[in-house]
Amino acid sequence: MKLLKTVPAAVMLAGGVFASLHAAADDSVFTVMDDPSTAKKPFEGNLNAGYLAQSGNTKSSSLTADTTMTWYGQRTAWSLWGNASNTSSNDERSSEKYAVGARNRFNITNYDYAFGQASWLTDRFNGYRQRDVLTTGYGRQFLNGPVHSFRFEFGPGVRYDEHTDDTTETQPLGYASGSYAWQLTDNAKFTQGVSIFGAEDTTLNSETALNVAINEHFGLKGGV
């Protein structure tokens, strides 16, 4: 679980452990409901961090952090995000991954939109010095709240891989993603996001989370 703290700028600080189900060297699923027609604030953001340590016959530790920031216009939304994770076992690092990305959404109608997004990732323990992904396409906002929100989007893209053995590869890909949010109560919100990047190897990302507000400034977040 995570303890969240909010400030007037809608930025949340969190401590705890958050797990996402994804393949090695993946691209994070983007679950923010970035519909400018329903935005209540010109800016929303979050910052999450977690640390887990275990000692005994073996010692291990895991450190994770991620952030998402979204700015809203009348018909557009701009987002930036980033995440980092490090794990070690017996004082030796066993994984290290960093990723950043940017996204733009333009509402064509109240339900149809165009989008473009780009991401960069490095995951040298899985053989990637860097992975760059660029996608663009069409999306449909089937539900836009206030209780239920759901969108689905798809489009073409391109991926560039630079491996730690100095080999490189550029290939086209197909992208599809769905994000759902359910405002269970005034204080509880459930979110589910899934994205697929289809190329020579297909990457599936999934994120499930429950946010529970304790008061105006604090909340709990748990996810798998």
Verbal overview:
Helix content is 0%, strand content 70%. With 224 residues, it is mostly beta strands. The chain has one domain: Porin (Beta Barrel). The chain has a 13-stranded mixed β-barrel. It is globular and about 55 Å long. It starts with a strand and ends with a strand.
Short description:
This protein has no helices and 14 strands. It is mainly β and 224 residues long.
Topology, please?
Layout: E1 2-6, E2 12-16, E3 21-22, E4 43-54, E5 60-72, E6 76-89, E7 92-107, E8 112-123, E9 128-144, E10 148-163, E11 168-183, E12 188-198, E13 203-213, E14 218-223
Parallel strand pairs: 2-4
Antiparallel strand pairs: 1-2, 1-14, 3-13, 4-5, 5-6, 6-7, 7-8, 8-9, 9-10, 10-11, 11-12, 12-13, 13-14
Protein name: Outer membrane protein
InterPro entries: DUF481 (IPR007433)
Keywords: Signal
Topology order in helix (H) and strand (E) letters: EEEEEEEEEEEEEE
Instruction: Work out the helicity level.
Output: under 10%
> Could you name the ranges where pLDDT drops below 50 across 5 or more consecutive residues?
1-26
Q: Count of DSSP helices?
A: 0
Mean pLDDT: 83
At the fold tier of CATH, the topology name is Porin
Distance between the termini: 10 Å
Dominant shape: globular
Side by side, the strands of the main sheet go: 1-2-4-5-6-7-8-9-10-11-12-13-14
CATH architecture: Beta Barrel
- Work out the number of β strands: 14
Strand content: over 45%
What is the C-level CATH assignment? Mainly Beta
**Number of self-contained structural domains:** 1
Supply Rg.
Answer: 18 Å
Category from helices, strands and their pairing: mainly beta
Major β-sheet annotation: 13 strands, mixed, barrel
